[in-house]
């Protein structure tokens, strides 16, 4: 089942850029997903298990790090292509 997730990371520190960039690098190293980024969020698309495993593995170092942060995640039961309309 193809799944997409849209997420935003909000590190609660003035030095937020490095935390976000490290997280995106973690996501891009995960197998079986497509990752797209823009100025507001990051989108993942792939099979459900691959998307959820990628989120778990990529979030682990950020959640376990020294910087307090907030993740906002939306999970869709359809595949999305960034910039394309999603049929409903």
TrEMBL record:
<dbReference type="Pfam" id="PF07615">
    <property type="entry name" value="Ykof"/>
</dbReference>
<protein>
    <recommendedName>
        <fullName>Thiamin/hydroxymethyl pyrimidine-binding YkoF putative domain-containing protein</fullName>
    </recommendedName>
</protein>
<feature type="domain" description="Thiamin/hydroxymethyl pyrimidine-binding YkoF putative">
    <location>
        <begin position="4"/>
        <end position="58"/>
    </location>
</feature>
<dbReference type="InterPro" id="IPR011522">
    <property type="entry name" value="Thiamin/HMP-bd_put_YkoF"/>
</dbReference>
<dbReference type="InterPro" id="IPR029756">
    <property type="entry name" value="MTH1187/YkoF-like"/>
</dbReference>
